[in-house]
Design goal:
alpha/beta; about 10% strand; about 180 residues; globular; 4 strands; four-stranded parallel beta sheet
């Protein structure tokens, strides 16, 4: 986790660009939950993408492994990263929150405020480390939503915001879609 997933996504994106299926200047990454982790780790660890959307992600492995998730998920990282007590440095090394200074492209962060699996505190720590760096970004936090969005109005707002991000970064016209305000 945080190595092979990031490398695989970058390899596929670049291969699609090399074969002419994708525009190298318009590559984006998106993901939710563990995919949100991969999206965030990819933005912090590669220069492949022009932007990204990160939804209800794991961002801080150490905090997640030490109680910042519910009991069901609490030992999940043992098999993906290694036991925390045996490889603590690996947890920091692979945590996007620890490498927020490496994120240099626009991104959208989507979070349910009632998420007990990937709590808002992790998103807020990432944003605190991005603050003042001049990286265009937006954070949409949804009351009454947990891990994965369920309400139709939340899903619609999240998709519109994501489309607006891509439109702004890639210079596309999206009539009828509200413009997502990106802060620096």
């Amino acid at each position: 986790m945080g190595v092979v997933d990031v490398e695989d996504c970058a390899a596929v994106a670049l291969a699609l660009a090399d074969e002419g299926t994708a525009d190298r200047g318009r590559l984006a990454i998106r993901g939710g939950s563990a995919g949100g982790w991969t999206a965030a780790a990819s933005l912090a660890g590669t220069d492949v993408y022009a932007c990204g959307t990160i939804s209800y992600p794991v961002l801080d492995l150490t905090a997640w492994a030490t109680g910042e998730t519910h009991d069901f998920e609490s030992r999940y990282l043992d098999t993906l990263v290694g036991p925390l007590d045996e490889v603590p440095a690996r947890y920091a090394e692979r945590s996007p929150v620890e490498h927020a200074d490496r994120i240099g492209v626009p991104f959208l962060l989507l979070q349910g405020l009632d998420d007990v699996i990937c709590p808002p505190a992790q998103a807020e720590r990432l944003l605190a480390r991005i603050a003042g760096r001049g990286v265009p970004h937006a954070y949409l936090a949804f009351e009454g939503e947990g891990h994965g969005f369920r309400r139709a109005e939340t899903v619609a707002r999240a998709l519109e915001a994501e489309l607006s991000l891509y439109a702004q970064v890639f210079g596309l016209s999206t009539p009828g879609i509200p413009t997502l305000e990106l802060v620096r």
